Amino acid sequence: MHEGGKDEGHRAESGAPGSGVDQGAGVGGSVDQGSLDRGTVNHEFLALERELTVLLRRARASSGEMVREVHPDLESSAYGLLVRLEERGRQRATELAAYIGVGKATMSRQLRALEELGLVAREPDPADGRAWLVHLTEVGRERFGTVRDARRARYVRELASWERAEVAELARLLHRLNRGVERG
Questions:
Q1: Torsion-angle region of residue 103: left (phi > 0), alpha (psi -120 to 50) or beta?
Q2: Residues facing 93 on adjacent strands
């Protein structure tokens, strides 16, 4: 159920009554900062804020569950690190910190915890002997792979009624949003 008590399984069409989308906004139209300041297109952004709030809260809870399946002593924030290391391979702690959006001290603490659990290891960076590269251990890769497979299977079940093109479009739009946030 949606926080407001509405069924989240519906698909509101842009401009449909109750969709949270301003009927006066044109499809594909752009939004300038001035119109946001004047409050003329707030419906879309209020709907976006509401849905992202629900999504992010559920994602945090899900990540917490998933990361505890990797190891019961892990913090939920470690899941994103494991994802990045699995996707990109060896990385410097500074690269991971920048990607995740945390400071060096926080990243060091998180990596130390992962290392103590045997899920990641560090090795000297051949390009710079003063730096270290972090990577998943074999144990870390196996545990993470099992959990990630379960997470993907859950997405498949939850989105079974969606067309593949809709899933691809959602992924594309979320990627675009993440890239925009990343660039600041």
A1: beta
A2: none
Helices (H), 71-183: 78-88, 93-100, 104-116, 138-158, 164-183
CA 85, CA 158: separation in Å to the nearest integer? 26
Residue 91 CA: distances (Å) to CA of 77, 82, 94: 17, 11, 8
pLDDT digits (tens, 9 = 90+) for 32-80: 555 555 556 688 888 989 999 998 888 888 877 877 888 888 887 788 8
| Residue ranges of the chain with per-residue pLDDT less than 50 | 1-27
Taking phi first (over 0 means left), then psi (-120 to 50 degrees means alpha), and beta for anything else, what does residue 179 get? alpha
For 169, the token pair is 């479009």
For residue 48, give the DSSP letter.
Answer: H
Query: Assign residue 118 a region: left if phi > 0, alpha if psi is -120 to 50, beta otherwise?
Result: left
Phi, psi of 73 (to 5 degrees): -95, 0
Q: Which whole-number Å values give the CA distances from 169 to 40, 111, 165, in the listed order?
A: 27, 34, 6
